[in-house]
What does this fold into?
Amino acid sequence: MKKFPSNFIFSTSTCSYQIEGGRLLGGRKHSNWDKFTIENYYIPPEGVAAREIASIDVAADYYNRYKQDAKIMKKIGVNGFTYNMDWARIFPNNEDEVNEEGIKFYEKAFKALYKKGIKLIPILYHWDSPLWLEEKGGTSSRAFLEAFRKFARVIFTRLGKYTDIFYVNDENSTYTVSAYLDDYNPPRKKDEKEFWKAVYYLSISGAIAKQEFELAKKQGYVSQKALLGIDHDWCPPLPYDAKNKDDIKACEIFNEYNLNLYLDPNILGTFPKCFHDAIKKFKLNDMVLEEDLKILKENTLDLIGWNYYRPAIIANPKRLKKKIKWQVEPQTFITKEAYIVFPKTERYTSWNWLIKPEYLSVGAKILWEKYQRPLMIIENGIGYFDVRENGIVNDTYRIDYLNEHLQQVQIAIDQGIPFIGYSLWTYCDIFSPSGGYRKKYGLVGVDFENKTLSRFPKSSMFWYNDVINNLTTFDQDKLEYDKYKNLALESYQKDKIWRK
Ligand code: BG6
It folds into this structure.
């Protein structure tokens, strides 16, 4: 049986505003996601796969349950936990006053994991800005840069002892498109000029964080071998018709806007052509300072985190026939020359997300060849309407999905691509931006329905444990669904970890 490298990181990922709660506890103040969810509260009819915007005030209550969660993670067997940090907890009022209570919370939560041999992998920014920063112009303003520098410095110097892997930003692509081109997520700008500004400042912020990271290394706050990466959600494109030149060209155009635009700056140190064209078009020359470009060039990042859920099937819109079912996804707002389409012949989740695991290894090869940086999957998982029976969820579909994708990681490793780890989305059920609490991603369940927020096992958590212990072959026909279900049932009845 093939094995993953001995130092391979098996982790789960999650994000503060989706799991943490305690939004007004411990000196914290509101962020733009608090404001957005309060102002746009909406619960669609039960059982419908639609957007739910519920309260994130308590979420899965990680704020109060981190000790129990550390024990459960130990039981799963992971050696990593990837966590998108909460800026507003650390700097609730302005960019200068550190909230010691906020830092203390993270120290306690991270120590609880660290003591159990679980490496914390913090991601500094995941779409969620403190309100004071939003009022100063947020990510599409220069004010973002200095504030981010101070935030990064505090993370590295205060929390650096618990880890040697960090990431700067999560999904600059989804964030800028959904929050600046579209009004799907806060700050809901719907303004193309603001979009380009946000892309610019986020890219520069990654390089600024690298400056602070290197300084923290020199000063001994983080280890000499520590790495700082960027986390990106590239959807590898494939042509709707592999023989059609226009579709093939459309894939190249898609990559310019979905890949090059977000990874070239922080990995190669330069912006791609589409960025320079946009600067001319929107007369943004004054924004781009020589000094910024120098920082960008001299501070490229060490690592690529990749959120892989699905590839994008791309067609040139000019030749689209009505015969295929297609839908325009937000990315297409940037360019009218590449549309994402959804042919009926493909597999989809109940939330209409394309399932095509093989593009994980295909995409990994492209990323490695172009950027020559080690890779880590930071998000990969399936959102589903779970059904709880006898206390547990027997999520065989999640096992199938994850199994097929992890197999592709192994294929990529066999091809010589340096993968340092795999972090699935997500540790437990949380608030999902597109499905609220009805769209479940966790290996571990959270009782949102009865509002107890108590944790309970799913079969997939025991499957993951087998993977980590090298007990699976990834052979779909040999998956031991009954074994995992029985382990979940037994654990739910006997294990103390489920009682807080
Ligand atoms: C990623 C985000 O894009 O997708 C996560 O980083 C999100 O925050 C995940 O939860 C899945 O998306 P969704 O909308 O189904 O929860």
Q: What stands out?
A: The longest strand covers residues 9-15. Residues 15, 18, 170-171, 174, 233, 307, 379, 383, 425, 432-435, 439 surround 6-O-phosphono-beta-D-glucopyranose (CB under 6 Å).
